[in-house]
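dumping this here before i forget
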Amino acid sequence: MASTIRLQREDFDAAAEAAKLTRGRSDIGAVVTFTGICRGSESGDPIAALTLEHYPGMAEAEISRHVEDAQARWPLLGVTVIHRYGRMMPGENIVLVVTASSHRQAAFAAAEFLMDYLKTRAPFWKQVESVSGKTWVEAQQADDAAAKRWNKPPGREAAE
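structure:
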């Protein structure tokens, strides 16, 4: 399976990354892309910027583990995960997950699985800048609950 994992400051082009993953492939029947974008408000308060910090080396290793887990659960033919760090303004891209499979259900499920784990397990720290100052964002119970639904042991999920 082709996989790409990158952590970077610079923006990415979701369409170009999906095209790169599928170029020259006739075995792929479904590609799912998810792009997380910096919102302009948090709980109704305007956001000036968002800063993401990470633990280099550890973050890539943790994301790799989850990509391997996704591959064990679904018949994937390719995965790309790009996560930005540094300061981002509202409307800017934060994260990209691209999954490719022969069938759509596997691609959709794997993309959702990877995003749930990126939100809860990848070592990133998020700081929000607003008119009232800078605050570090705490883990959200809803994100943890979403990730818990994947706790069953890995085993190839239904392909269709």
